[in-house]
Specification:
Shape: globular
Number of helices: 6
Number of strands: 12
Strand content: 15-25%
CATH architecture of the largest domain: 3-Layer(aba) Sandwich
Radius of gyration: 17 Å
Structural class: alpha/beta
Helix content: 25-40%
Oligomer: single chain
CATH superfamily of the largest domain: Acetylglutamate kinase-like
Order of helices and strands: HEEEHEEEHEEEEHHEHE
Strand order of the largest sheet: 7-11-12-10
Largest sheet: 4 strands, mixed
CATH class of the largest domain: Alpha Beta
Distance between the termini: 41 Å
């Protein structure tokens, strides 16, 4: 009950805020179109999303508690949902806006000298995942490690993921801020 109430408030805030910029946002209750199996998306009615897109609307979905065929109910993270939709809808990339705006070696909330990791690939993934395991904010969906694990798995399927601070997407796209997670590429080890 309380989680749903907070999600409704956040959805209303986002719908009104983005609507003020002229964006035709249409909230969709994620649990009405998704079924889980052991905490993972088993089925998603993508036709609902496509119908709203065809009408020129921007569907707004979020992570929510959902029906789970095995467990009764599970929490679907927005990270899993975003990766699933990006893959199924053949998105050229996925962007996550986060409070800290990048992936760091160290916890930027505890260490003011934490270093941004500008790129994550299979080459540096073992070290990155190890450094994220001690994140200060871990929730039922895995916190930052859960988010970056979903992003890394998606990148291995050919869809790059950008981790960006709010309002700084242009700088992230130009490589000046944030973190890019991708399938291939060399990594400068000094950023680890």
């Amino acid at each position: 009950g309380q989680i749903q109430a907070q999600l409704y408030q956040l959805t209303r805030f986002l719908t009104e805020g983005l609507g003020a910029f002229g964006l035709p946002i249409f909230p969709i209750q994620t649990s009405s179109i998704v079924t889980l199996l052991k905490g993972r998306i088993h089925n998603c009615n993508l036709s609902t999303i496509h119908h709203y897109l065809d009408l020129g609307l921007i569907p707004l979905l979020s992570g929510v508690p959902c029906f789970d065929l095995d467990l009764g109910a599970s929490i679907l993270s927005g990270d899993q949902l975003g990766a699933y939709l990006a893959l199924e809808m053949k998105s050229p990339q996925l962007v996550h806006f986060t409070e800290v705006g990048a992936v760091y070696k160290g916890d930027p909330k505890k260490d003011p000298h934490a270093i941004i990791i500008p790129r994550i690939t299979e080459e540096n993934w073992p070290e990155v995942s190890q450094s994220l395991s001690g994140s200060s904010h871990v929730d039922v969906t895995g916190g930052m490690l859960g988010k970056i694990q979903e992003a890394f798995d998606l990148a291995q399927k050919g869809i790059p993921v950008l981790i960006s601070p709010l309002g700084k997407l242009k700088e992230v796209l130009s490589g000046k801020r944030g973190t890019r997670i991708e399938k291939n590429g060399s990594v400068n080890k000094k950023n680890l």
